C-alpha cells in the first residue's frame, strides 16, 4: 500500500489510481467501477440529506406546474446506482436487493467482465427518524463466456469477490471499501464534493466491546443462540460482558463494530429459519470487508465467504465482527449440535 501521512489530502480517485499502479496487470476497469460507485453515493447522499424536507418540499411541488411525485428513497437509490453503472462498459450484469431478477446491461452499451450486486439503501425504514442508512455493494468477476452475465456469474461464493464496499449516510457520509488489499475509509467533504482518505488500513480489534443484536426475538431463538447471547453478556462462561448497541441499520451497526470492535448478530429464529439478511447483497460484501480488516463472519457453522449461493435473494443467519467473538459463536453452536446429536 502507498503510505500517506495523516496530513496529506488524498482523494478517493488518487488513492484508487495509486493502488492500481501497484498492479501492472490491472486494466483499470475495477477502478472505474469504484469511481462510479463513489459518484452514485454522492447523489444518494445528497438526496438522503434532504429526506426530512420531503413533506415540505413535496407539498410545495404539488402546487407547482411540474407536479412531480416524490419517489421512495430506496427506489431512487436503486435507479441512481443502475444509471451510474450500466453504461461504463465494465459490467455484464447487476443484481439488487430491490429487484427480483438480474438487471441486464442494455444492448446499446458495451459489456465488461464484472458483475455488481448491491443493496441500494439498507435500513431505509429508519429514514423517517433520521437514523443512518447505507448502501452495500459487491463485485464479482464473470465466469460464463457470453457477452451478458448469467445467474451462474452472480451465484459464486463470496470468497471470489474482487471488491466490496459500503457507504454510510450518517453524521458524515463515508465510503469504505476493499479490493483484497486491506480496508480503506473515505469521508465525503461536502464543501468540495470529494471523498477524502480518512481511515487508511482499518483493523478491527480481535475482541470486541459491543454486541449488536435484536433480542426481542429471544423467545424465537433455539437454546444454542440463547446460550451464546448469555456468554456475550457475561452471564455465562466468565467472559467480560459486551455492551449492547443496536441501531437496526446494518451498515451503521457494522461500521461502529468495525472501528470499535464487536459483533453483529442476526440469528436464525423460529419465524425466520434462514435469518433475515441477504447473502449476496449484505452478508458477503460485509464479510469480505470484515475479514480484510482482520475480523470474521459466519452463519453459526460455516464461514460466510464459503457458502455456495443457490438463489439471488437467499437469506443467511449472520455473526460478523471481531474474530474471537465470531469464534465463540462457532464453538457454541458446534457444542450444541454435538449435544443434540449425542
Ligand atoms: P432492509 O434491507 O429491508 O432495510 O432490512 C435490513 C435491515 C438491516 O439494516 C438491519 O440490520 C435489520 O434489517 C434489522 O432488522 P430487525 O428490525 O428485525 O432487527
Ligand atoms: Mg438491506
User: What gyration radius follows from the Cα positions, in whole Å?
Assistant: 20 Å
What's the average pLDDT?
Answer: 91
Tally of helical segments: 9
Low-confidence segments, ≥5 residues, pLDDT <50? 58-70
Following the backbone from N to C, one meets helices and strands in this order, namely HHHHEEEEHEEEEEHEHEHEEH
Using the alpha-carbon principal axes, give the shape.
Answer: globular
Distance between the termini: 50 Å
CATH third-level topology of the largest domain: Fructose-1,6-Bisphosphatase, Chain A, domain 1
The major sheet is characterized as: 8 strands, mixed
Estimated helix fraction: 25-40%
Q: State the CATH architecture of the largest domain.
A: 2-Layer Sandwich
Describe this structure in words.
The chain is an alpha+beta fold and about 350 residues long. It folds into 2 domains: about 10-200, Fructose-1,6-Bisphosphatase, subunit A, domain 1 (Fructose-1,6-Bisphosphatase, Chain A, domain 1), CATH 3.30.540.10; about 210-340, D-Maltodextrin-Binding Protein, domain 2, CATH 3.40.190. The chain has 9 helices and 13 strands. It has helices spanning about 10-20, 30-50, 55-60, 75-85, 150-155, 225-230, 250-260, 280-290, 325-340, and strands spanning about 90-95, 105, 115-120, 135-140, 160-170, 175-180, 185-190, 195-200, 210, 245, 260-265, 295-300, 320. The strands form 2 sheets. Strands 2-1-3-4-5-6-7-8 form an 8-stranded mixed sheet, sandwiched between helices. Strands 10-9-11-13-12 form a 5-stranded mixed sheet, sandwiched between helices. Helix 6 links the parallel strand 9 (about 210) and strand 10 (about 245). Helix 1 runs antiparallel to helix 2 (about 30-50) and helix 2 runs antiparallel to helix 4. The longest helix is centred in the first third of the chain and has 21 residues, at about 30-50. It is globular and about 55 Å long. The N and C termini lie far apart (about 50 Å). Mean pLDDT is about 90; it is low at about 60-70. It binds 2,5-anhydro-1,6-di-O-phosphono-D-mannitol and magnesium ion. The site of magnesium ion (MG) has 4 residues, from strand 3.
Amino acid at each position: 500500500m502507498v503510505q500517506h501521512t495523516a496530513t496529506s489530502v488524498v482523494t478517493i480517485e488518487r488513492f484508487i489510481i495509486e493502488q492500481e499502479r501497484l498492479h501492472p496487470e490491472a486494466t483499470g476497469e475495477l477502478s472505474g467501477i469504484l469511481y462510479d460507485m463513489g459518484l452514485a453515493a454522492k447523489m444518494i447522499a445528497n438526496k438522503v440529506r434532504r429526506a426530512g424536507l420531503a413533506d415540505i418540499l413535496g407539498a410545495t411541488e404539488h402546487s407547482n406546474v411540474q407536479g412531480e411525485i416524490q419517489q421512495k428513497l430506496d427506489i431512487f437509490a436503486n435507479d441512481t446506482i443502475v444509471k451510474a453503472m450500466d453504461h461504463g462498459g465494465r459490467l455484464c450484469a447487476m443484481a439488487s436487493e430491490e429487484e427480483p431478477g438480474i438487471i441486464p446491461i442494455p444492448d446499446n452499451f458495451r459489456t465488461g467482465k464484472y458483475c455488481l450486486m448491491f443493496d441500494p439503501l439498507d435500513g431505509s425504514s429508519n429514514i423517517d427518524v433520521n437514523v443512518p442508512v447505507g448502501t452495500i455493494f459487491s463485485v464479482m468477476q464473470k465466469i460464463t463466456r457470453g457477452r451478458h452475465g448469467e445467474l451462474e456469474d452472480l451465484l459464486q461464493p463470496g470468497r471470489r469477490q474482487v471488491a466490496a464496499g459500503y457507504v454510510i449516510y450518517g453524521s458524515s457520509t463515508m465510503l469504505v471499501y476493499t479490493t483484497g488489499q486491506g480496508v480503506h475509509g473515505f469521508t465525503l467533504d461536502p464543501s468540495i464534493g470529494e471523498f477524502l482518505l480518512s481511515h487508511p488500513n482499518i483493523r478491527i480489534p480481535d475482541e470486541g466491546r459491543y454486541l449488536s443484536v435484536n433480542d426481542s426475538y429471544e423467545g424465537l431463538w433455539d437454546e444454542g443462540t440463547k446460550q451464546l447471547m448469555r456468554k456475550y453478556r457475561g452471564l455465562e462462561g466468565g467472559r467480560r460482558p459486551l455492551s449492547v448497541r443496536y441501531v437496526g441499520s446494518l451498515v451503521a451497526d457494522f461500521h461502529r463494530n468495525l472501528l470499535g470492535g464487536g459483533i453483529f448478530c442476526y440469528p436464525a429464529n423460529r419465524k425466520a429459519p434462514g435469518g433475515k439478511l441477504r447473502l449476496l447483497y449484505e452478508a458477503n460484501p460485509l464479510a469480505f470487508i470484515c475479514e480484510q480488516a482482520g475480523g470474521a463472519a459466519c452463519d453459526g457453522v460455516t464461514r460466510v465467504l464459503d457458502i455456495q449461493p443457490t438463489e439471488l435473494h437467499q437469506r443467511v443467519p449472520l455473526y460478523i465482527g471481531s474474530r474471537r467473538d465470531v469464534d465463540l459463536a462457532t464453538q457454541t453452536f458446534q457444542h450444541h449440535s454435538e449435544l443434540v446429536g449425542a
